[in-house]
Amino acid sequence: MMTRPVAAIILAAGKGTRMKSDLHKVLHPIAGRPMLLHLIDSVDQLSPERVVVVTGAGREQVEAAVAPLGIATALQAEQLGTAHAVAQAREALAGFDGDVLILYGDVPLVEVATMRRMIDRLREEDRPAAVVLAFRPADPAAYGRVVADDSGRLDRIVEYKDANAEERAITLCNSGLMAVHSADLFGLLDRVGNDNAAGEYYLPDVIALAAADGRHSAVIETDAGEVAGVNSRGELAQVEGEWQRRARARAMAEGATLIAPETVWFSHDTRIGRDVVVEPHVVFGPGVQVADGVTIHAFSHLEGATVATGADIGPYARLRPGADVREGARVGNFVEMKKAVLGPGAKANHLTYLGDAEVGAGANIGAGTITCNYDGFLKYRTEIGEGAFIGSNSALVAPVKVGAGAIVGAGSVVTSDVEADALALVRAERRSKPGWAKRFREMMMAKKAAKKAGE
Ligand code: UD1
Ligand code: CA
Asked: Which ligand is nearest to the CA of 13?
């Protein structure tokens, strides 16, 4: 099969009124990333010669989001229908000779393999005029119905509003996505009218127009989850759920154990290795990398963190951006890390805050240790050397260094550097009064009894 260049037109002119949002619909995040960028990422894998995003309502937001990617936009000033929207890309595709994929910005989960199937079908020897991506939803609702024969050749697509009872009984629905050769596309669009129930220019009408020229079109099917669209917050949550289901399946296929997969939430860029165990209710924010053999216990939250081989995290750990947990280190319950390195084999097992800190290999950070990194104006660093031992409930007031092998006594407030192998003990002298507590108790009990007798 000869290879032809590919272009993509992504429709994103719709208002998204039902989102009730100041943010454009296609910029609402799925797995922490605008849905439009998920789609563009998939399109990119086809190495398209051109990509055009058709904008309309809220165009400034969409333009700002795609400009850094060097992607062209075309303005659809008035939303007169999907055919009219695609026609706006004519100028941006001037001189392009190849296959055009038409996608919807609010249908973000379409896989590159499916896009390839559409293009491959368009290139088959029978030369269909268009390839339509269809699906069979549990509830066909108001989707356009695909009128096709058993061999996957189709005559037309009828919009629900325009369909009769017999056509409405068809279960094969139009996803809206289509592949058409550029040489056919714009000529067909020119002939689409708006004499229909909605008074709109329907893109699917190109099928019937091609048929009138004696050109057949083809339909291929995919599962409903892949072509799920977002029109409301409820559908946004469903698409997020679908994305998460796939990410969990991928993580498991690549050798991670998820004990309760449905409770683990990934980000668009989460990387986890082999033989990683993720316990229930773990959330990955953006920018997390987890190496092989790591265990992440229940209820941990990670974001912008790097976790090296064999480390052990949680339960109830919070790793914030810049957390860097090295080989075999241990971050226990209610420990928060931010811009902090926990060296190989080091431990911070309980109730600790490590911020703007560097902890050397094998150091032990006692329960309740706090690096006091902020004075209300500026942030400062704490350095803890290899093999140091920080006693429980210590406050390390940065900037401060604790040398290798040093010991900080429990309850210390350390405001200046501790040299290597030294003991730093910063506590008030203890005062002791033998028998005082007993005498106090007896006096108070007598007082209470006298008060009661006088009532
Ligand atoms: C469309 C299809 C229908 C299909 C359904 C799948 C038509 C006429 N109908 O229906 O067969 O089952 O999608 O969801 O195409 N858009 C623009 N400019 C416009 C109109 C739409 O950019 O003038 C964009 C929207 O932002 C959206 C997409 O095109 O991303 C689809 O528009 P929408 O109004 O949701 O299409 P439907 O009429 O629901
Ligand atoms: Ca829609």
From this structure: 1
